[in-house]
Amino acid sequence: MDHNEASGSSTATQGYGTDPNLVTPDTPWPRTLSERQRKLIVALGDIILPGTDEYPAPSAVGIADFFDDWVSAPYRTQQKDATVITTGLAMVDEASHQQFGIGFAELDGSRRRMIVDQIASTTATDRSFFVRFRSLLLSGYFTTDIGFKAIGYVGNVPLVEFPGVPPEVQRIIDDELRKLGL
Predict the structure, then answer these.
(1) Sign of dihedral through CA atoms 136, 141, 145, 148?
(2) CA 176 to CA 88: how far, in whole Å?
(3) Of all residues in the chain, what percent are helix, strand and coil, respectively (each to 5)?
(4) Using one digit for the tens of pLDDT, what is the confidence trace for 100-129?
(5) pLDDT (tens digit, 9 = 90+) per residue, 132-173?
(6) How far apart are CA 69 and CA 12, in angstroms?
(7) How far is the C-alpha of 82 from the C-alpha of 43, rounded, in Å?
(8) What gap in Å lies between CA 71 and CA 69, rounded to an integer?
(9) Which residues lie in Polar residues bias regions (predicted)?
(10) Smallest Cα–Cα separation from 146: which of 22, 40, 57?
């Protein structure tokens, strides 16, 4: 046994790396969205999920950063989403230019809503962009501290006492275990 093995370290194997820094996260890949695309994400996101007096709009919680990180990631799912999102953003901006002579981000709220309503209710390609954009928007928003508060999620908190599984939930678990023969 060499010194590295005896001390618990190994220069031969690196493992998967360290745990992510969730306090001040850092993305290990370059961001790929342009400033124009980020502005479109903000404008579109705020129409789909407008802020309230209690909970701000997605633009206020950094939704463009979430999208930029997501579509810039070098993974198959995110790369597929990058194509859908960037193509869809271009389509939204083009529809705005065709109808109103200016880009989507420069439109007022009522005209933005007109474009969104048209996209959400039209062809399968346009609709698939809208559905995926909305899904990512909600995922990004409701995993922020503000989003957690909005849905009442308190996270992993210590309990003085564990109340146990509610009887109606235990019945469901028992039924499923029986079906599996366990």
Answers:
(1) negative
(2) 42
(3) 60, 0, 40
(4) 999 999 999 999 999 998 888 776 666 788
(5) 999 999 999 999 999 999 988 877 778 788 888 889 989 999
(6) 31
(7) 18
(8) 6
(9) 1-16
(10) 57
